[in-house]
Write a structure and sequence with these properties.
- The protein has about 290 residues and is α/β, with parallel strands linked by helices.
- The protein has ten helices and ten strands.
- The strands form two sheets. An eight-stranded mixed β-sheet has the order 4-3-5-10-6-9-7-8, sandwiched between helices. Strands 1-2 form a two-stranded antiparallel sheet.
- Helix 1 packs across helix 3 and helix 5 crosses helix 10.
- The two termini are about 45 Å apart.
Amino acid sequence: MQRINLNKLYYFYVVAKEGSVKAASQLLNLTQPTISGQVRELEEDIGFELFNRKHRKLELNANGKKVLKKADEIFRLADSLADATALKSKKDRAKIRIGAIQSLSNSFINDISTRLWRDESVQIEIFQGRLPDLLKMLNHSDIDILLSDGPVPSSKKHQNIPLGRDHVVAVANPKLKLENKQFPANLDHVPYLAFSNEGQLQAEIDYYFDRHNVHPEVMGKVDDITLMRVITETSPCFTVMPRRSVKEAIREKRLKLLGQVQGVESDLWAITPRVSTNRRLVTKVIKDYFKGK
């Protein structure tokens, strides 16, 4: 018996209900090519087309209408099952597990989970670690969402969802004295605290220094962004990190802003399983984040 991928069926269902791939992409916070590709794969899986495609417009054909009717029954039943088994007591909450690489801003992690903390029906677990370790956890269903500063290679197991970008800035201990040169030349041979993890951000920072022929003196490497900020606040050095991570410290003059690292931005991504028993809660987390932006 041919098994139907429910994720692909759900994308078709949303496209059919919303009337277009564009409207579905806005609702699901996914790119149009991602949704179109999933619908195409569903058509290939079941062996027939579901839409008449004319001048970039989609119109359900006879087969599409039949599949939509069945999909409507399936997802209505799924919702009713979820409601019937919803865990109402605080002792027995629905659980979502979020993994985040350690170079991500804590404020970003808070932004994406803030509504969950107020939801008494949900229990949240947040793990921070190295990207390879967290990706392994995602692939083994040990976490439901992976938050990263860059996408991971395409896979049948997971998908990349862009969440936005943040400017990257160089900051230093207020007592650090620099040569009277323009930024970033004034960072040459200055004590520097770098990221030690394999995230995309450090690679782009290194490339930025190479392009400007700047060679900071690496005094150490840290994989936790909060620890990095604290060390910089108390040591004669500078570091480079997303602006949202240090804006409060700059405002309170615990750190001084040296300059924006032009051309380098901290990307924010959510990597989620293509198929998940926790799909409804994962979708809610992503939607709530975009609502709060």
